[in-house]
Predict the 3D structure of the following.
Amino acid sequence: MKIKATIERIPGGMMVVPLLLAATINTLAPDLLRIGNFTQALFVDGASTLIALFLLFTGAQINLRNVGVSLGKGATLLVTKWFAGALIGLIAFMMMGDNGLFLGLAPIAIIAAMTNSNGGLYVALVGQYGDKTDRAAYSLLALNDGPFLTMIALSIFGAMGFVEGMFSFTSFISVLLPIVVGMVLGNLDEDLRNFFSTGSSVLIPFFAFALGMGIDFSSIIEGGLGGIILGLLTVFFTGTVGYFVFKAMKWNPIVGAAEGSTAGNAVATPAAIAAASPAFAANVELATVQVAAAVVTTAILLPIYIGFLVKRLEKKGVNVPDDYVVQDNKN
């Protein structure tokens, strides 16, 4: 049977097929794999560990001469994603009705969903379509986890004052450390770099499946059309802006588009904001389900959109990622 070849015919197949399979299982029979021990550890609870191992393997492939490239890409991704999401949020605040909604969307949901990104999905996509510097850029993207950047946007808009302590420096280091460990090992020993080189691609379908076990398709129903629209905006607006910014920088534009998602941790952001400022409490439940629907929508749609963009580039004679790989990384 040609299972691998069949999956790879689907855009982003090694990511999207296991993710959708797991989401289906989680929706229809959520306790099927939650039976404890090794089964649950691998297929349900293993996403964080597998992604950490992926980052370590990726770090081992980084040549220290190119570390500045990774930081530059990470900073560009972070700023672009935040600016695009905050812009739509600002428009929503300026044009919302008396009910505090803009086209049925809670502005706080817009900012929470569109300034946040799914790190696991980013890692999986750049694992397939990016190079080592693109994967290492993930370390900076920890900054858009949780309500930190949402609070920054709201403070700039004058909606509320800046609240200190929303971002933990420790959480940033905890994301960066596996990459640093791998980078040290890979630069100290070329044999270790070669040994770890095949590990990254093998891990993708496994942590994609574990990520899928955290997705429930009922979130789309609960969030309604508004949540789906929010997901579409996140993919097509923030993803497309990232695509063209990276293209202008002469970097792989697919990596810029790979930030067009919303992470599951964004679901908690509206409640966190409401706790900090009662002014947002009125629509906090609606905002929460809309963000949840956006999480599911972006997880399904972004890999498909990325596949479309890759095919579009290939038709123009551009090979992804080969035409964008930093030359020193080939050594």
